[in-house]
Write a structure and sequence with these properties.
The protein is an alpha+beta fold. The chain contains 33 helices and 18 strands. Helix content is about 55%, strand content about 10%. β9, α32 and β10 form a beta-alpha-beta unit. α10 packs antiparallel against α33. The radius of gyration is 30 Å and the shape is globular. This is YfhO family protein.
């Protein structure tokens, strides 16, 4: 009976999560969809991939849409035999973002049930975790892969704790394996990596407990073996994705450096430290977990508009010289954010009550949870400081495997946002139910933690201006006193409002706990009070960053690259900052569409209006020189940094010709101009002059100055390729593209002499195969980033096709691992039922 009752409560809890998710996302009822910046960019960059899939029913693992061409492994490609991804899709059945909000809460609810075995505390913890502000900021930005991965943090930890703490080996294996597989399928390795840094503390805790004989060492070894097997099988179910990405990453900005310069040495692995640590959380900024606007909210808060208006008035009234105006301009950054990061969409707010209860939990929770959660929390906070704690960051970058593959260390705070709600509900559960804790100890701990927390807030309210400053060093240097005073006063007001709220929320929680201790308040009522106040707190803060303004009509969400404007569109766009770029870019999009419709051959467009290397409008209509992607191929990124940071009027056109930029889009958004580039090299050309160079640095320098139509720059390492392959000039020779698909290109060639054909296609050493008259031949790299092949004299058919072997190998490994999971899970469940039946028979 009790079991059935619990099942009913669990079902009700899941319904509550769905209801809350829909209530938060009410615009979905009217058919509106989220407008997410990164998803808009994805729609443009993945257009060729999506069109190919729709037209052929097949998958292409290469697309020419962005950056001259790149693998699609991180552009939304699908893998045959990827069963675990299909399960992920089924779990995300609700409309976005309702699916994310539901699964975040439901996953933590499972964790809470495993840890405290009580649905009430699990429900409370699920709201703590599911309403963490950072998740809502990430959803608004379109970081769907990140949120999809975080969805499975809590249930994966639940599976591991089932094994280590609950000693439920079979169910623990099933849950751990399933959610390990789902987490990898969500495809955000950085988030998974950060989680496992934290889980290392759990492993050490269990090892120490085994050594101290708090738990049998045999249990620790069995548990570790089960968890290791679960993780391996979970990873194995994603072999296609992992193997393809592993192969790809080596050739990207996350892989080895190629060039040697002042900031890196060729062969060094990972990103340079400056790029890695650019988004580092400030030490004081960490308190944003407790008070959302301690260092400001997002860079673009609504209050910023009013502040800017007042600043402009003050400048007009007090500034009389251009020199003073120029000095003031140097001092301005983000009005509503004054932390250490270059900018931010909002704070990683965890909730005042959650932080208070987490602090209480570190004194009251069971030791088997307390120490590893504390250690993991401290480490992740320290790592989030990044460039503000270089001793630790340097150590991890230099010595901890794979750490240097990831940027934006501030995002590691997602681990804290998992662990604080967990230790909070453990502490709260033990505070209310554990009879081994004396009334005196509970009261004393509550007095110290509650009083200390409230006292800390009061100190900030009284002495905050002198302690926190509310300005940056740059602002203090350049802004005159009348502006600096106004800015600090307005920022202090923003902080004060949130600090007072934090004081009130914590005071309510402390009072509720105290009254329960004095038996003047029912425990369940106290839980409801804490839950409702925390829900109100997080809900209202989250609405600053993900609200009704983030939802737009379906037509804008699914086709953000509009080519026609109208009064109706202007009316719908008016006042919505998310949609304003759509209207602003209509003329540019129309120009791109016109080019693509009039010239259907294969070529690229250089768009110099929208920010060449931070937009995918161009890619939506035609192959682009630029694009938007965090993991570009290293060689292409090197060329961008070498030539496009400073627009040399001679060298840049040479590079554009090399990349077959047949059209240039110049001017401004209102009156864009499409200019043909008759000097573009075309899709392929023959060269007879080979310029051998000794180093990658010489190679990349040379391509900006040579006549690339006649000369190819070849690495000295490839000299042996030309053994027995002479190259001779023939003014009548030609090679023309006859068939184009993103993963297969065919050319017809004619020449009286042997030639080296250079293709305006990006070199990638894995998966591409060349065939001359259907006989496979080797190819090399030319001009630092292009493909080239030796073509004998005569008439020939030259074909290149992208058939990465890693896809087929990974497919079979994925299927085998998934099959192994099913077999082992089935056997385990069968064993459990046999064991149960045996016990029942013995009772009879």
């Amino acid at each position: 009976m009790a079991k059935n009752k619990n099942l009913i409560y669990i079902a009700i809890s899941l319904v509550v999560f769905i209801v809350l998710a829909f209530l938060y996302s009410t615009p979905v009822f009217t058919g509106k969809q989220l407008f997410q910046h990164d998803i808009v960019q994805y729609r443009g960059g993945a257009k060729e991939l999506l069109d190919y899939r729709a037209d052929t029913g097949k998958e292409t693992y290469w697309s020419d849409s962005m950056f001259g061409g790149m693998p699609t492994y991180q552009m939304g490609s699908q893998f045959n035999g990827d069963i675990i991804k299909k399960i992920d899709s089924k779990l995300n059945f609700l409309p976005r973002p309702v699916n994310y909000l539901f699964l975040l809460s439901a996953g933590f609810f499972l964790l809470g049930i495993v840890v405290v075995r009580n649905w009430k505390y699990a429900l409370l913890g699920a709201t703590f975790f599911g309403l963490s502000t950072y998740f809502y900021i990430a959803i608004a930005a379109g970081h769907n892969g990140k949120i999809n991965t975080i969805e499975y943090f809590a249930p994966l930890l639940a599976g591991i704790l089932l094994v280590y703490i609950r000693k439920q080996y079979i169910w623990g294996f099933i849950v751990t394996t399933l959610f390990m597989g789902l987490q990898i399928a969500a495809n955000h390795p950085q988030m998974t990596y950060y989680l496992f840094l934290a889980l290392g503390f759990l492993f050490l805790s269990e090892l120490i407990r085994g050594i101290l004989k708090k738990t049998p060492m045999k249990h620790f070894l069995i548990s570790s073996g089960i968890v290791a097997a679960s993780c391996l099988i979970g990873v194995g179910m994603n072999s296609q994705r992992i193997m393809a990405n592993s192969e790809y990453i080596k050739e990207t900005v996350r892989g080895k450096q190629i060039l040697t310069n002042s900031s890196n040495t060729g062969g060094d692995s990972g990103m340079d430290k400056e790029s890695m640590l650019m988004w580092s959380y400030g030490k004081l900024e960490t308190l944003n977990l407790f008070i959302p606007r301690l260092m400001g909210g997002g860079s673009q808060e609504p209050e910023g508009k009013e502040m800017m208006t007042k600043i402009q008035e003050l400048v007009q009234e007090n500034v009389s010289s251009q020199a003073e105006y120029d000095r003031i301009s140097k001092g301005f950054g983000n009005l509503t954010y004054w932390g250490d990061q270059p900018g931010t969409s909002g704070p990683a707010y965890q909730g005042a009550i959650v932080c208070f209860l987490a602090l209480l939990g570190f004194f009251i929770a069971w030791k088997k949870y307390r120490y590893w959660i504390l250690g993991a929390s401290i480490l992740t906070v320290f790592l989030a400081w990044g460039s503000n704690f270089m001793a630790l960051s340097d150590f991890f970058i230099d010595f901890v495997p794979f750490y240097n593959k990831f940027r934006a260390p501030s995002s590691i705070l997602v681990v804290v946002e998992l662990l604080f709600p967990l230790i909070a509900i453990i502490g709260l559960y033990r505070f209310f139910t554990d009879k081994t804790l004396t009334q005196e100890y509970k009261q004393k701990t509550l007095l110290y933690v509650g009083g200390g927390t409230l006292g800390f807030v009061l100190i900030l309210l009284i002495f905050g201006k002198s302690l926190l400053g509310f300005h940056t060093d740059n602002e203090k240097t350049y802004l005159p006193p009348f502006l600096l005073d106004y800015l600090t006063d307005e920022r202090f007001k923003l902080f004060r409002i949130d600090a007072i709220k934090a004081f009130i929320y914590v005071a309510i929680a402390v009072t509720a706990l105290f009254l329960v201790l004095k038996q003047k308040l029912n425990q369940n009522i106290a839980l409801v009070i804490i839950g409702v106040v925390s829900l109100f707190d997080l809900w209202t803060v989250n609405k600053r960053y993900l609200n009704d303004d983030n939802y737009v009509d379906k037509i804008f969400a699914e086709n953000p690259f509009q080519t026609e404007s109208s009064d109706l569109m202007a009316e719908k766009v008016q006042g919505n900052p998310n949609l304003e770029p759509i209207l602003a870019n209509v003329n540019v999009n129309k120009t791109l569409e016109t080019i693509a419709e009039k010239d259907k051959t294969h070529y690229r467009i250089f768009n110099n209006i929208l920010g060449t290397f931070s937009e995918t409008n161009t890619s939506y209509f035609k192959s682009s020189i630029g694009g938007y992607h965090a993991v570009k191929l290293r060689r292409y990124d090197d060329v961008i940094n070498e030539y496009f940071q400073i627009m040399d009027s001679v060298k840049v056109p040479n590079i554009l010709n090399l990349l077959n930029a047949k059209y240039l889009v110049l001017g401004g958004p209102e009156q864009p101009q499409a200019m043909p580039n008759p000097k573009a090299n075309g899709n392929a050309w023959f060269v007879s002059d080979l310029k051998f160079v000794e180093s990658p640095n010489q190679e990349i320098k040379a391509i900006g100055t040579i006549n690339s139509k006649r000369t190819a720059v070849i690495s000295a390492d490839d000299k042996k390729y030309f053994d027995g392959k002479p190259v001779q000039a023939d003014s009548t020779a030609f090679i023309n593209l006859t068939k184009y698909q993103p993963n297969e290109l065919e050319f017809k060639s004619q020449s009286k002499t042997p030639q080296l054909a250079v293709f305006s296609e990006i070199y990638y050493p894995h998966g591409w195969k060349f065939f001359i008259d259907e006989k496979e031949v080797p190819y090399i790299k030319a001009d630092y980033l292009l493909r080239a092949v030796h073509v004998p004299a005569g008439n020939h058919n030259v074909r290149m096709v992208f058939e990465p072997e890693v896809i087929e190998k990974g497919k079979w490994i994925s299927l085998i691992c998934f099959g192994l999971f099913i077999v082992l899970s089935g056997a385990g469940i069968y064993f459990l039922y046999r064991k149960r039946d045996k016990r029942q028979m013995e009772k009879i």
